[in-house]
Amino acid sequence: MKRLHFIFLVLLFSVAVTTTAEAHAFLDHANPAVGSKVHGSPAEVKVWFSEKLEAAFSKLQVFNEAGQEVDNRNQRLDPGNAALLIVSLPPLRPGIYKVVWHVVSVDTHTTQGSFKFEVIP
Known about the structure:
It is a single chain. By secondary structure, this protein is α+β, with helices and mostly antiparallel strands. The chain has one domain: Immunoglobulin-like. The protein has one helix at residues 2-21; strands spanning 27-31, 37-39, 44-49, 59-63, 76-78, 81-88, 95-104, 110-120. The strands form 2 sheets. Strands 1-3-6-5 form a 4-stranded antiparallel β-sheet, with no helix packed on it.
């Protein structure tokens, strides 16, 4: 019986260690903030993730209310923080914008999502 308990604990520990080693890059915070209203056009969108990203396989886009991509298509990782993805913006008109991200963390796990912010005069 003790041997069975030992085997169970070893298996349980193995599952716990494996689960924590398989991290995914989730959105931590953003600027403009998720759901925020900003006065005037921001110069860029910055999105911080919970894990470091693979730049070649990660994408950050900004769309207007008509579904047109409005960012400058120049996404990049911050040189000092591989968990920060940035894309610059041209001057934006007042309206609601959707930020869409699809990222691959350095451990090759993929996540995606979106959020909106509003530009007000």
